[in-house]
């Protein structure tokens, strides 16, 4: 049974309505056409019902097809939209196509209407299928990423479970022997408690990152917690393959406005990519996650980096004035400065993932973040990770960049620094924090 095509037709002329209806019927198209003639009716119809296609006259009293196109783009951007006109010039027609119209048909050439409608519907069908395929690919990519983590997570949990089992067994043996020294009891209980908390953190991080997260609101979020969630799910993989994972000590007062789930997913993806890039290389293999801040003080740019093993009295290193480069004073052997950042970024927390690999070849830099483009073997990647990460960062008002000034691969992105509570950000940015 042929499905009836639901058409919304914006037209004030009764004669033109009948003409269009007749041409659609003569063209063998089984349609249900609802005709309206005002802005209010048009808007209400889009809000109340779902349409397969929209036809709109170019010129109506008090309303016009271009304005209708703008409303349709807001309320139902994926619904095909065809403009009909007897007066529209070629330049206006071209502009309407640039604005999102699917096609335009001159009333003098109304015989072209049926082919135009069929083509628009077919394109919409293909686009819907592509969207479904993309969604499946994204889901597959997420499952693949979770699958790669599964072995490491199982090992990460099995080790603590073994500690808990051994400690509990020791307590049981002491109880059976009738000797229960208080110090031994306290030590075993503390070890069990600490190990159980470790397992709890792993499970919490997994539950967080496994969520989709795009519908979450932007919230003030601890940078340290974001980093911790990402690291909990990948550091065992690094350890098992003898790849060194270096991380900054993140000041607990640093906060950003973001969707925590999504940013943790981006960091995890960048860390996993970096691991894949160096895992099979000879020699020293390392990946570094850096968290820095970029801000203006008295009109000049300063950078503050948070690094481990800083000796007492050692201040955070500052980049040269207006350089836009944040350079760590304590870093990893063989690495250079942190990636260059956009000088226009103010009051930002900058996340950067660097690795000891040879870098991305120049001929691949322009394509590295394209959807479905990957340099990994078929079994290791779909080419969606970086493109999705870039979309997430852009949705947060930032930009995911591949540094061109590093000897090694460096992906970085900024997020707006939260200034709440008042003075908290300023305090943690002072040298020597």
Topology order in helix (H) and strand (E) letters: EHEHEEEHEHEHHEHHEEHEEEHHEEH
Low-confidence stretches: 296-345, 421-433
Task: Assign the CATH superfamily of the largest domain.
Answer: Histidine kinase-like ATPase, C-terminal domain
Cα-atom Rg, whole angstroms? 30 Å
Look at the helices and sheets and give the structural class. Answer: alpha/beta
- In the CATH hierarchy, the third-tier topology of the largest domain is known as Heat Shock Protein 90
On the 0-100 scale, what is the average pLDDT?
75
What is the architecture of the largest domain at the second tier of CATH? 2-Layer Sandwich
What is the helix tally? 12
What is the general shape? elongated
**How many domains is the backbone divided into?**
2
What is the strand content?
15-25%
Helix content: 40-55%
- Output the CATH class name of the largest domain: Alpha Beta
Walk me through the structure.
The chain is of the alpha/beta class and 433 residues long. It has 2 domains: 5-129, Rossmann fold (3-Layer(aba) Sandwich), CATH 3.40.50.2300; 215-429, 2-Layer Sandwich (Heat Shock Protein 90). Helices cover 44% and strands 18% of the residues. The chain is built from 12 helices and 15 strands. The protein has helices at 14-26, 39-48, 65-75, 90-98, 113-177, 182-209, 223-232, 235-240, 260-278, 362-365, 385-395, 424-429; strands at 5-10, 31-36, 53-57, 59-60, 63-64, 81-85, 103-106, 219-222, 244-247, 255-258, 286-297, 300-305, 348-355, 401-402, 410-416. Strands 9, 11, 12, 13, 14 and 15 form a 6-stranded mixed β-sheet that branches. A 5-stranded parallel β-sheet has the order 2-1-3-6-7, sandwiched between helices. A hairpin with a 7-residue loop joins β14 (401-402) and β15 (410-416). α5 runs antiparallel to α6 and α7 crosses α9. The chain starts with a strand and ends with a helix. 33% of the residues are buried. Mean pLDDT is 75; it is low at 296-345 and 421-433.
């Amino acid at each position: 049974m042929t499905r009836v095509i639901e058409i919304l037709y914006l037209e004030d002329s009764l004669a033109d309505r009948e003409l269009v209806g007749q041409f659609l019927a003569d063209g063998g198209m089984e349609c249900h056409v609802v005709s309206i003639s005002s802005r209010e009716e048009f808007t209400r119809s889009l809000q109340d019902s779902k349409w397969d296609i929209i036809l709109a006259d170019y010129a109506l009293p008090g309303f016009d097809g271009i304005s209708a196109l703008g409303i349709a783009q807001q309320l139902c951007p994926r619904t095909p939209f065809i403009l009909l006109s007897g007066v529209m010039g070629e330049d206006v027609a071209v502009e309407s196509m640039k604005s999102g119209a699917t096609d335009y048909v001159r009333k003098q050439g109304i015989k072209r209407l049926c082919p135009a409608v069929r083509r628009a519907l077919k394109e919409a069908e293909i686009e819907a299928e592509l969207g479904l395929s993309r969604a499946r690919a994204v889901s597959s990519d997420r499952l693949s990423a979770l699958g790669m983590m599964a072995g490491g997570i199982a090992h990460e949990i099995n080790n603590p479970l073994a500690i808990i089992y051994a400690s509990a067994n020791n307590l049981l043996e002491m109880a059976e022997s009738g000797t229960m020294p208080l110090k031994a009891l306290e030590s075993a209980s503390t070890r069990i408690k600490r190990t159980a908390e470790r397992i709890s953190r792993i499970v919490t991080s997994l539950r967080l990152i496994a969520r989709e997260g795009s519908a979450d609101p932007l919230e003030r979020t601890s940078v340290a917690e974001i980093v911790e969630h990402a690291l909990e799910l990948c550091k065992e993989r690094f350890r098992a393959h003898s790849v060194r994972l270096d991380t900054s000590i993140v000041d607990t007062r640093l906060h950003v406005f973001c969707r925590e789930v999504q940013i943790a997913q981006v960091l995890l993806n960048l860390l996993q990519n970096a691991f894949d890039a160096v895992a099979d290389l000879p020699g020293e293999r390392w990946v570094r996650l850096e968290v820095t801040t970029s801000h203006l003080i008295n009109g000049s740019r300063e950078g503050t980096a948070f690094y481990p093993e800083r000796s007492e009295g050692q201040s955070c290193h500052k980049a040269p004035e207006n350089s836009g480069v944040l350079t760590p004073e304590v870093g990893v052997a063989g690495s250079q400065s942190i990636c260059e950042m956009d000088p226009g970024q103010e009051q930002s927390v900058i996340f950067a993932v660097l690795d000891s690999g040879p870098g991305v070849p120049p001929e691949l830099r322009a394509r590295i973040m394209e959807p479905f483009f990957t340099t990994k073997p078929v079994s290791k990647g779909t080419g969606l990770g970086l493109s999705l990460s870039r979309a997430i960062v852009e949705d947060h008002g930032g930009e995911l960049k591949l540094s061109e000034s590093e000897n090694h691969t460096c992906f970085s992105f900024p997020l707006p620094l939260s200034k709440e509570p008042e003075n908290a950000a300023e305090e943690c940015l002072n040298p020597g924090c």
